[in-house]
């Protein structure tokens, strides 16, 4: 959960380690979208994704997906400051 009245919060640096899909241990998680900027829109590319969309990130969580979706949780590569 976020701190009261805090719109943004920092995320620890994450190490992305390539592996086979079948080697991923299935744990409770939230699939958070990662965007380049806080504008969650961009030009629709030929892949069907926005040009602002980077990837999905699996974040460990004991809450259901709907909990984080209702809060609009997403990861940003940069802020608009």
Tell me the layout of helices and strands.
Layout lengths: L28 E7 L17 E8 L4 H6 L4 E2 L5
Parallel strand pairs: 1-3
Antiparallel strand pairs: 1-2
DSSP strand count = 3
What is the topology, as strand order, of the major beta sheet? 2-1-3
**What is the molecular shape?**
globular
What structural class should be given to the helix and strand makeup?
A: mainly beta
Structure explained in plain terms:
The protein has 1 helix and 3 strands; from the N terminus they run E-E-H-E. The chain has one helix at residues 65-70, and strands spanning 29-35, 53-60, 75-76. A 3-stranded mixed sheet has the order 2-1-3, with no helix packed on it.
Condensed summary:
The chain has 81 residues and is mainly beta.
List keywords for this structure.
single chain, 81 residues, mainly beta, three-stranded mixed β-sheet, 1 helix, 3 strands
